[in-house]
Specification:
By secondary structure, this protein is of the alpha+beta class. It contains 12 helices and 38 strands. The chain has 3 domains: 250 residues, alpha-galactosidase from lactobacil brevis (Beta-galactosidase, Chain A, domain 5); 304 residues, Aldolase class I (TIM Barrel); 87 residues, Golgi alpha-mannosidase II (Immunoglobulin-like, Sandwich). Strands 6, 7, 8, 9, 11, 12, 14, 15, 19 and 20 form a 10-stranded antiparallel beta sheet that branches. Strands 21-22-23-26-27-28-29-30 form an 8-stranded parallel beta barrel, surrounded by 5 helices. The radius of gyration is 27 Å and the shape is globular. It is an enzyme of class 3 (hydrolase).
């Protein structure tokens, strides 16, 4: 619901459990409140406009009206606000001063699509209300539309910004934030995620301090180093209680989150496109659409915030045929064969997979061109008949005849210097004339800002997808951008290249997913290097990490779950010793960790013992029973592996009639204190039966008294409790 009070000029956005309040004052849009829902906001805490030393004042009649101290909703630069701005522009005369003032608003039902960009959506107008707030700079003709959408069923507010040049001279955008707001105190901890390849989404919680904290990517992708997300948590907030304010950017390129505590102990927070090497020339009558930011407030701690993101992103960000379907259990041949694949070996793995009840066989890297290692052939999307004499069509038919669906790996955004494509079109890569190329993994990045490159990729990929019976595509991206320049852009638009690349990528993905709606697309970037909301709009699941070690995955999947739902997280059982870290864990441990996401295997089933093959078959059968619960249930984190020797979580069905709990003991220590597993999210009045042994307990008993965790010597144990309501 959106309420406008014309007398107070207040705009009140209401979700089920939160309120967000703004006010127009002297033409400026002020931020008054964001937090627990207020049914009737009557102005209990007005902004105090006290004169401050060295504070320039925007209203000559009121020395206290200074932009340097007011809580602003979308601040600019040059008029006395010395904090970091939400946007920055440069005019043709070289100056960078602008002054946006409120000029009106429109409230409407529903949510408009963003042209060329991923965003949350509604299926019916009654699901949301939106407001467009118009701001104008009378001198330059710059018009900015701030759009806020309030969802009926989610405690979330979607924000975005559109710039329009209504003047007669070009304007250069230097910085564009999708969301910015000023909170009137600084009593927060900042939660962010950091990492690297094979070690994604480590959690970091630090108290805010005076000055700025920046979380960003300049790599051309959202990156494994940082996630386009942060949360501000009240000091007493934890997993289950306290105020948490989440900021998530629906974008897959360079981003920046900036949190600033200024001299009077207030907090400015913003998120958007990274201004580093970014600018955009906005000619008269042209417009620029910023990506969407999704803001979530929770008074039920980090877990409450996570469940809102999970439900919203699963049902109103992800799209397509597979959005509401259980995802198939797959076997991927990569760690089984690497580049040394042949049709006979692949069919043998597929036959074992079928015996185990696995549903999908995925052919990974090495099937095309002259690809015997990672030094050649990216871009040459034709079948290597030496490895696959019957082609993809023949292999796909044989896989389907065995009883499995068939999936295929691509890395469309890259090209190998040793490839027919590069020899024919060296100018199709990102490059700067006169500068040498920097190679990464022996490959270069194709310039997806170019329409001719996108046409080639669409034709090449669609030809393969049309020729063979392909049910699944793994879309990989294994290097970041260097020498970021485009041969087709003029000098004054070169700094648009990185963003135009992302827009081109989105266009290509939109065409392919629309043309092949029955293919399940999975995003990958050496694992979790581009795990972001923008990709989920086109591809409803992502390979979470190349690191498949069960112990490492506890942290990786725990951190990822803060924003992203389990159904989006690819999680596979691999061979031991683990190929990434060399650790040996039991098949039971590896299976339970992988079952906590989108389940699959990545090993050579033909080399397993009969005992392990029987275990795999049991795991597959068990996951099929609990799959709807994992992929569509509510998720609760119970024990944090970043701060504990153990990890624990549970999934609860939306009707609370079924739940499954997982407890993982990593390192064994003597004289352990008895550990207890406490379910969360159950109905306290229900009676539940343990599906393993028939024991019966009440819901409040399972949540409050809990269950004893068995004590076993040795490292790397897992324990499961699958319960159902007694009818």
């Amino acid at each position: 619901m959106i309420i406008y009070d014309s007398k107070k000029r207040c705009i009140h956005l209401q979700t089920k459990h939160s309120s967000y309040v703004m006010q127009v004052d002297n033409g400026y849009l002020l931020h008054l409140y964001w937090g627990k829902r207020i049914n009737h906001y009557l102005g209990s805490r007005p902004v105090i406009k006290a004169p401050r030393s060295f504070a320039p004042y925007a209203d000559p009649k009121h020395r206290g009206f200074s932009l340097s101290t007011l809580p602003l909703e979308y601040p600019g630069y040059g008029n006395g606000d010395y904090r970091h701005p939400a946007y920055a522009v440069q005019l043709e005369n070289g100056t960078t001063v602008s002054d946006l003032r409120y000029s009106g608003h429109i409230i409407y039902s529903g949510k408009r699509k963003l042209r060329g960009l991923p965003a949350t959506y509604v299926e019916k107008n009654a699901e949301a209300d939106s407001i467009d707030l118009m701001l104008e700079d009378q001198v330059t003709g710059l018009s900015v539309i701030l759009t806020y959408t309030v969802f009926r069923d989610f405690d979330a507010i979607a924000r975005t910004v559109r710039f329009e040049n209504k003047g007669n001279r070009a304007i250069r955008l230097l910085k564009v934030s999708s969301a910015s707001l000023d909170l009137r105190d600084n009593q927060f901890d900042l939660l962010t995620f950091y990492g690297t390849h094979n070690d994604e989404r480590n959690m970091d919680r630090q108290p805010l301090a005076p000055g700025s904290r920046v979380i960003e990517s300049t790599r051309g992708a959202s990156s494994p180093q940082h996630d386009p997300f942060f949360a501000l948590m009240r000091k007493n907030a934890d997993e289950n209680q306290g105020d948490v304010f989440g900021f998530s950017l629906v974008y897959s390129g360079n981003f920046r989150s900036q949190i600033e505590v200024e001299q009077y102990h207030t907090t400015r927070a913003s998120i958007g496109i990274n201004p580093f090497t970014f600018s955009w020339k906005l000619n008269p009558e042209a417009s620029f659409q910023a990506p969407e930011a999704v803001l979530v407030y929770s008074d039920q701690g980090l877990g409450g915030m996570s469940r809102t993101y999970h439900q919203l992103y699963r049902s109103r960000l992800a799209r397509g045929t597979y959005r509401d379907r259980v995802r198939p259990i797959l076997i991927n041949n990569w760690e089984a064969t690497y580049f040394k694949l042949n049709e006979e070996k692949l069919l043998a793995i597929a036959a074992e997979a079928q015996k185990a009840g696995i549903e999908l066989f995925v052919l990974d890297d090495g099937w095309f061109g002259r690809r015997d290692n990672d030094k050649s052939s990216l871009g040459d999307w034709f079948v290597n008949k030496r490895k696959l004499p019957h082609g993809l069509k023949g292999l796909s038919k044989r896989i389907h005849d065995i009883g499995l669906a068939f999936g295929l790996w691509f890395e469309p955004e890259m090209v190998s210097p040793d490839s027919d494509l590069y020899r024919a079109h060296p100018d199709w890569t990102l490059h700067v004339p006169g500068r040498p190329h920097s190679l990464s993994r022996h490959q270069l990045v194709l310039d997806l800002s170019r329409a001719d490159v996108r046409r080639y990729l669409y034709q090449s990929l669609s030809t393969i997808l049309s020729d063979a019976d392909i049910n699944y595509v793994k879309w990989d991206m294994n290097r970041h951008m260097t020498e970021v320049g485009s041969a087709l852009l003029p000098p004054d638009r070169q700094q648009e290249t990185a963003h135009r690349y992302i827009l081109g990528l989105y266009e290509l993905m939109e065409r392919l997913t629309h043309a092949f709606p029955n293919i399940l697309f999975e995003s990958c970037s050496s694992g979790g290097g581009r795990f972001d909301p923008g990709m989920l709009f086109y591809m409803p699941q992502t390979w979470t990490s190349d690191n498949t070690d069960a112990v490492c995955r506890l942290n990786i999947q725990y951190g990822t779950s803060v924003v992203y739902p389990a159904i989006a997280m690819g999680a596979h059982v691999s061979a031991v010793p683990n190929h990434q870290v060399g650790r040996v864990t039991s098949l039971a441990m590896r299976g339970a960790v992988a079952m906590s996401g989108n389940f699959g295997y990545e090993l050579d089933l033909t080399k397993l013992s009969d005992e392990d093959k029987a275990t795999v078959k049991k795991q597959v059968a068990f996951y099929k029973k609990i799959r709807p619960l994992i992929q569509f249930g509510n998720f609760y984190r119970l024990c944090n592996p970043f701060t504990s020797n153990d990890a624990a979580w549970c999934f609860v069905s939306p009707d609370q009639k079924e739940a499954i709990g997982f407890y993982f003991s990593v390192w064994f220590n003597p004289n352990l204190v008895q550990k207890v597993f406490h379910f969360q999210g159950l109905n306290p009045d229900f009676v539940y039966e343990n599906c393993a042994n028939g024991d019966v307990f009440s819901g409040d008993e399972l949540m409050n008294s809990g269950l004893n965790v068995p004590i076993e010597k040795g490292d790397f144990h897992r324990y499961l409790w699958w319960i159902k309501k007694v009818e």
